[in-house]
Amino acid sequence: MRSTKDAIGQIFNGVNGKKEAWVLEGDLKGFFDNIKTEAIIESQVIAEDEEIKATLKNGVKSGAITVNPEKIETEIGTPPGGVISPRLANIAFTGMETMRDNWVWENRKRTGQKQKRNKRAQTIVYADDLVVIAKERWIIEELKEVISDWCLEKMGVELSQEKTRITNIEKGLVFLGCNIRKYKVNDTQKIT
């Protein structure tokens, strides 16, 4: 029950009120074609429902038909052009926030920082689009590597090194077709 507007609103909430915000714009190579079926069916959302698991496995193995018309066998990915594919992608991302929070916790122990209520990073995912927001660039740079490893291991998809960018929110980003950035109003205020 979430829309693109909700995802964009989460970015607004993530940068609103912060003097400095760094953003990781993640792009996954061939996400819908290469995602492991296990990443979806082993998620907490589906793990207990055997009927849904069987349906998803059959949907992936049903293949695709090319323009010629020629049938292509498939063992990975989501149904090509399927209306359910974006939802399946969101299910596959289940666990990324837990992984990120574990990284933040380990990083706090390593650096001796004590921040109980202040989240060090925020993750926004919509279908195959991914944004991570943090106050400091080094957090984003380290999380880029951690997320890249997690996506490859759990989902079987690579974070594109060419298309993935780290930027300051004042330079802006493009997410779900919207240009999002923080503009200076005057020396004492900023709005998003």
Describe this structure in words.
The protein has 192 residues and is of the alpha+beta class. 40% of the residues lie in helices and 19% in strands. α6 (96-111) crosses α7. The two termini are 25 Å apart.
Total beta strands: 10
State the major sheet: 4 strands, antiparallel
Question: pLDDT average, as an integer?
Answer: 79
Please state roughly what percent of the residues sit in beta strands, choosing from under 5%, 5-15%, 15-25%, 25-35%, 35-45% or over 45%.
15-25%
Head-to-tail CA distance between termini: 25 Å
- Helix and strand run: HEHHHEEHHEEHEEEEE
Number of helices: 7
- Give the % helix: 25-40%
Q: What is the radius of gyration?
A: 19 Å
The dominant shape is globular
Notable features of this structure?
19% strand; 192 residues; four-stranded antiparallel beta sheet; 40% helix; globular; alpha+beta; 7 helices; two-stranded antiparallel ribbon
Summary, kept brief:
With 192 residues, the chain is an alpha+beta fold. It has helices spanning 4-15, 31-34, 37-41, 50-61, 85-92, 96-111, 137-155; strands at 22-27, 64-65, 71-72, 121-126, 129-134, 165-168, 173-175, 178-180, 183-184, 190-191.
Give the topology, please.
Layout: H1 4-15, E1 22-27, H2 31-34, H3 37-41, H4 50-61, E2 64-65, E3 71-72, H5 85-92, H6 96-111, E4 121-126, E5 129-134, H7 137-155, E6 165-168, E7 173-175, E8 178-180, E9 183-184, E10 190-191
Antiparallel strand pairs: 1-5, 1-6, 2-3, 4-5, 7-8, 9-10
